[in-house]
């Protein structure tokens, strides 16, 4: 299997980063919905679920950074045959997914008022306690963490988390299945098979 992408298929590294991102996104959703639906406030389970959400989200910051770098230095495979409009839609879809992958973990981290116990191994300071917050937000804009947190949280939870991310991811996965089962082209295989 090729390490780098070829004109026909994604390489090992792009595939690995793509599927790790997908699993971590799923993990972020499962942990936060589990917290809401199956745990009581202020119980150890509630705290564990939150900390798993924060830890998985922070892992995504690392994975997505690597993914963006790899995408810049390694060109994507050629598209399967399709109209110009379909190619344009695929491009817009992929770039919007990249935007979601960057915006979700960042708004999650900067808008959270508790520190992260990273998979219960070590602590990561909350944004409010960092020099960046002090210099950029507190001194720069002259606002408190509470004033800053409110709109950021709204974006993280209500706009992107509840709606946009779901619509995009489900649309993206459906498009991949449509290509595989209806168009019967190599779109899904480019991201799955060990070619
Ligand atoms: C791709 C990564 C992430 C996804 C998909 C995601 C998704 C979500 C969603 C959907 C909610 C709202 C749940 C609800 O109100 O029903 C939420 C809440 C929250 N997220 Fe994230 N998040 C991610 C990363 C992060 C990160 C990196 C942090 C912080 C380090 C974080 C901190 C929080 C906090 C504190 C809440 C409120 C907790 C709660 O309502 O139970 N998130 N997240
Ligand atoms: C079951 C879930 C998923 C399936 C079946 C799937 C399938 C695929 C396939 C087949 C491609 C190649 C498309 C092409 O060459 O035109 C692809 C690319 C891509 N996927 Fe997914 N995907 C899934 C989940 C996700 C998730 C959760 C994200 C991010 C939140 C994501 C982000 C992307 C991006 C950004 C690309 C473009 C890669 C590039 O060219 O740089 N995917 N996916």
List the main descriptive attributes of the protein structure presented here.
elongated, 72% helix, two-stranded antiparallel sheet, 195 residues, mainly alpha, binds protoporphyrin IX containing FE
Structure description:
Helix 3 runs antiparallel to helix 5 (145-183). This protein has helices at residues 12-38, 44-73, 84-110, 131-141, 145-183, 187-192, and strands spanning 116-118, 122-124. Strand 1 and strand 2 (122-124) form a beta hairpin. Strands 1-2 form a two-stranded antiparallel ribbon. The radius of gyration is 19 Å and the shape is elongated. It has 195 residues and is mostly helical. One protoporphyrin IX containing FE binds at residues 25, 28-29, 32, 35-36, 50, 53-54, 57-58, 60, 104-105, 108-109, 112, 116, 156-157, 161-162, 165.
Return Rg in Å.
19 Å
> How far is the N terminus from the C terminus?
5 Å
Order of helices and strands: HHHEEHHH
Runs in which pLDDT lies below 50 for 5 or more consecutive residues are none
Helix content: over 70%
The ligands found in this model are:
protoporphyrin IX containing FE
Largest sheet: 2 strands, antiparallel
Oligomer: single chain
* Count of alpha/pi helices: 6
Q: What is the strand and helix layout of this fold?
A:
Layout: H1 12-38, H2 44-73, H3 84-110, E1 116-118, E2 122-124, H4 131-141, H5 145-183, H6 187-192
Antiparallel strand pairs: 1-2
Helix pairs in contact: 1-2, 2-3, 3-5
Bound molecules: protoporphyrin IX containing FE (2 copies).
């Amino acid at each position: 299997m090729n390490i780098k992408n070829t004109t026909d298929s994604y390489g090992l590294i792009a595939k690995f980063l793509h599927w790790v991102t997908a699993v971590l996104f799923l993990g972020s959703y499962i942990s936060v919905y589990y917290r809401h639906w199956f745990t009581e406030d202020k119980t150890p389970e509630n705290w564990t679920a939150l900390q798993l959400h924060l830890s998985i989200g922070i892992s995504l910051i690392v994975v997505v950074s690597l993914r963006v770098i790899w995408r810049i230095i390694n060109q994507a495979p050629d598209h399967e045959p399709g109209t110009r409009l379909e190619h344009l839609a695929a491009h817009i879809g992929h770039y919007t997914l990249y935007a979601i992958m960057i915006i979700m973990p960042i708004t999650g981290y900067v808008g959270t008022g508790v520190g992260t116990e990273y998979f219960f191994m070590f602590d990561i300071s909350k944004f409010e306690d960092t020099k960046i917050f002090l210099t950029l937000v507190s001194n720069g804009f002259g606002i408190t963490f509470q004033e800053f947190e409110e709109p950021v949280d709204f974006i993280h939870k209500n706009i992107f988390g509840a709606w946009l991310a779901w619509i995009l991811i489900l649309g993206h996965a459906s498009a991949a299945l449509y290509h595989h089962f209806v168009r019967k082209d190599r779109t899904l295989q480019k991201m799955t098979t060990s070619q």
